[in-house]
Specification:
mainly alpha
Amino acid sequence: MGGQKVRKDALRIEAYGTIDELSACIGLARTALAAGDAPAGAAELAAVLLRVQNELFNLGSDLATLAADHRPTQPVIETRHATALEHEIDAWNAALPELRSFVLPGGGFVAAYLHLARTVCRRAERLIVRLADAEPIGPAVIPYVNRLSDALFVMSRHAARLYREPEPLWEPEKT
């Protein structure tokens, strides 16, 4: 955005490219939620994921645009987006059993796709933090991506519960 020539391996390109990858991972989870006999609650989770994908496009647009080139009507990530994720995290967590060990990625297809999305989100967060050290970015970007990775973890647990799939737990003595 803005017409500047930038190397393909520029940190800004890497950051919003990883956000695009994250959206694709979330698309896998949404597609899996729509397949077959979806349990009650799957449509609600799919709707949240669709909203998040739209927010990620706003975030990508924000990251792709230098501060000097931002337009007043350009969609950006705002504090309200992270706040919405926090409310959803709290609601889903309230219905989940307390963890006594680390969760291994798995718990069915939807949960596994959400775990994959979480790991891509964490990588995006690391890239965005590096970018923020080098160039100005939107003030709500890092808090949003941080909350999103937490939300994706809780969503994966929620999905495993919806599908009645066991959550594989880390058992260090089995190594």
